[in-house]
Every structure is written in structure tokens, then in C-alpha cells.
Amino acid sequence: MKKLLILISILISLQVQAQRTSAPEGPGSLTFWENLSKHCGKSFEGEMLNASENDQFYGKKLVMHVRTCEDGKITVPFHVGDDHSRTWVLTMEEGNLIKLKHDHRHEDGTEDRVTQYGGLSSNTGMAKVQFFPADQETTDLIPYAATNVWWITLDDTSFTYNLRRINNNSPIIVKFDLTKEVETPPTPWGWED
Predict the structure, then answer these.
(1) pLDDT at position 4, please?
(2) Which of 30, 61, 75, 182 lies deepest, with the highest CB count within 10 Å?
(3) What is the pLDDT of residue 88?
């Protein structure tokens, strides 16, 4: 656990240093939003950086698709093999804060019992990283997830989705290669073209 926390601290400090050397004017959230929007319509393959054989993603093809970039809303379906149930929904809120929600659907399009969890960025963050601590809706829906923190890193070559559960030694880290587009997966369950 201590080694993991040290690693996370090092990664964050490297992101901060990189940000300081190329800090754009304005809130980091707006630059992050603009940079993610540049990938609209594109799909990229990823990998679990810390997968074990008992992980639900182990051995499956992982693809993210920056599907829609509307005014104030970006949807990013996350396809796990033939499972098209997950979509990350990012919305720009007042004060240039970004909200991350996880939309989970069944194959027939109906919402899963556990859906719409996530959080609101606690500040405008940096152009290359946004943090989302669990919100009250998440706490009410999934009490054990009250201490979850999600974060997304974004640079010219990669998009990384991360989840850290406090009191759990196994963070989830999925890194996508933005330098190689892949074929767009099917429409995610419950969404229309």
C-alpha cells in the first residue's frame, strides 16, 4: 500500500511539473475538455496496467470511443470485449468543473441497478489531469464507494482512466493509446445513433 501511494504521488508530481512547463492560460478543465474533444468520433484500444487473472477485464479487448461531443457533454463508451454496457459521461458544470458519471445499461437498453455513479471535480484541475471524488449520489447508491476517487489523465499520446478505492491495494488503471485509431465498436447498449 505504501509503495502504491508513493507511486501515485510521483505520478501526480510529474503531471504537475509537466503542467507548469507548458501551462496554458485559463482553467485547466477547459484545456482538458478541448483536448478530449479533438478525439471526437475516434476509437482507441487500451490495456489494464495492473490486471490479474481474476479481474473482469482480464484477457478482453478494451476499446474507448469518444462518441459524442455536444455543447457541455462528452460521451465515451468503454467496450470490454462483447460487453457494450459502459459509457463514461462527462459534463461541464458551472464554474468550469467537470462531472464524471458512469452510465451502465443492460443489453436491452434498460439501466442497470448500479448506474450514474461518479463525482464532480473538486476544482478546475489541470489540463492533463482531472480528479473526481465520489459524490453524494454515489454514496447513497453504493455506500462502500463513498471514498472512491476517479481520475483521468490526457496527453498527446494517451488517455488513462483510473480508480482508487481507499483501503484497497488494487487501483484500476486502463491506459489507451491515442496514437493508433481502431475500428469503432457497435453502438453502446441503450444509446441511439
Answers:
(1) 46
(2) 75
(3) 98
Report residue 162: phi and psi, to 5°.
-130, 145
Q: Is residue 156 a contact partner of residue 53, using CB atoms and an 8 Å limit?
A: no
In degrees, rounded to 5, the angle at the alpha carbon of residue 127 between the alpha carbons of residues 76 and 123 is: 90
User: What CA–CA distance (Å, rounded) separates 173 from 10?
Assistant: 15
Cα distance between residue 34 and residue 24, in whole Å: 12
Which pLDDT tens digit goes with each residue over 84-111? 999 999 999 999 999 999 999 999 999 9
Residue (of 39, 40, 57) closest to 163 by Cα position: 57
Low-confidence ranges of the chain (pLDDT < 50): 1, 4-7, 10-11, 14, 19, 21, 23-24
Q: Domains of the chain (ranges plus CATH)?
A: 24-181 (2.40.128)
What are the angstrom distances between the C-alpha of 87 and each of 48, 83, 95, 138, 168?
Answer: 17, 11, 24, 16, 24
